[in-house]
From TrEMBL:
It catalyses: riboflavin + ATP = FMN + ADP + H(+); FMN + ATP + H(+) = FAD + diphosphate. It comes from Desulfomicrobium orale DSM 12838. This is Riboflavin biosynthesis protein. Keywords: ATP-binding, FAD, Flavoprotein, FMN, Kinase, Multifunctional enzyme, Nucleotide-binding, Nucleotidyltransferase, Transferase. GO terms for biological process: FAD biosynthetic process; FMN biosynthetic process; riboflavin biosynthetic process. Its EC number is 2.7.1.26, 2.7.7.2. It comes from the Bacteria. SUPFAM superfamilies: Nucleotidylyl transferase, Riboflavin kinase-like.
């Protein structure tokens, strides 16, 4: 996938493009269906396939850090979109100038003159431009003026509920990562770098843990999870504790991962944790022996869950 900029040159788009626009937080199954439609439509018409997104997220631009945590970072979104077969990604810097741009100008300058759009495919509720005036009806009228077609996709539902980044975020924050999987089309994952922790896992408990410095900002509810640990392209069964380790009275949130059946120095290495199921919440134990016994039971339960076909990565 080629990343293009605006303003600036965009080679390879002269033949025309099939374009979609969105924030795509999580790149969930609704986004995936939309992007697949763009990819297939572009191939059928011999057009370039293009996804347009924004950084920072427009909501965060207007409200700052008061926004809920996002499911995916921009780099994660870009990788997931690339995996879906899109040829070009345009990430627009969302700033005051773009926020104030009327939708007619956005269409002319970016979609028509820059991307050479011949087809535009949008989600069921997409709107853009100053005051979100750029809705489906206006886009169709502008398409007639500038010579591109507009298609609006139907919403994707699961159990009668429209799939959205908001509902997925709520599931993850509640700890129900298992229920989030069919909406995401994959297990929710947190990438990060292994850093030095407090050295208690192997030394005191007999279960060495990798202390993760996460790259994302959304964490599952505190507790113990069985998960898959991805390391250098290899997948390992693992257990993760998200929380404050109340037995030891920690103040800072941590993500500690025990990679099963792996005896290897992980410090400084990149590790991605794919959360499968929450086993229990955090609790304070009377001492090390009681904690070690519970961890042993957690590992046994986790192995059973991860061995099931429906838990495969």
């Amino acid at each position: 996938m080629q990343r293009v900029t605006w303003p600036g040159g965009a080679t390879g788009l002269e033949r025309g493009a099939c374009v979609t626009i969105g924030n795509f937080d999580g790149v969930h199954i609704g986004h995936q269906r939309l992007i697949a439609r763009v990819r297939d439509r572009a191939a059928g018409l011999d057009l370039a396939s293009v996804a347009v997104t924004f950084e920072p997220h427009p909501v965060r631009f207007f409200t700052g850090q008061k926004t809920p945590p996002f499911i995916t970072s921009y780099e994660q979104r870009a990788e997931l979109i690339a995996d879906l077969g899109i040829e070009y990604l345009l990430c627009l810097e969302f700033n005051h100038s773009l926020a104030q741009m009327p939708p007619e100008e956005f269409v002319r300058r970016i979609l028509v003159e820059h991307l050479h759009a011949r087809e535009l495919i949008i989600g069921h509720d997409y709107a853009f431009g100053k005051g979100r005036q750029g809705n489906y009806e206006l886009l169709r009228a502008l398409g007639e003026t500038w010579g591109f077609g507009v298609e609006r996709m139907d919403p994707v539902t699961a159990d009668g509920v429209v799939v959205s980044s908001t509902c997925i975020r709520k599931l993850i924050e509640s700890g129900d990562v298992w229920a989030a999987r069919p909406l995401l089309g994959r297990f929710y994952c947190v990438p990060g770098t292994v850093i030095h922790g407090r050295g208690r896992g192997g030394r005191l408990l007999g279960f060495p843990t990798a202390n993760l410095q996460p790259a994302g900002e959304l964490f599952p509810k505190t507790g113990v999870y069985c998960c898959w640990a991805e390391l250098h392209g290899r997948i390992h069964q693992a257990m993760a504790n998200v929380g404050y380790n109340p037995t030891f009275g920690n103040d800072d949130l941590s993500v500690e991962v025990h990679v099963l059946d792996l005896d290897e120095d992980l410090y400084g290495q990149h590790l991605t944790v794919h959360f499968v199921r929450r086993l229990r919440g955090e609790r304070k134990f009377s001492g090390l022996e009681e904690l070690k016994e519970q961890i042993g039971r957690d590992v046994a339960q986790g192995r059973t869950i991860l061995a099931a076909p429906e838990a495969r990565l």
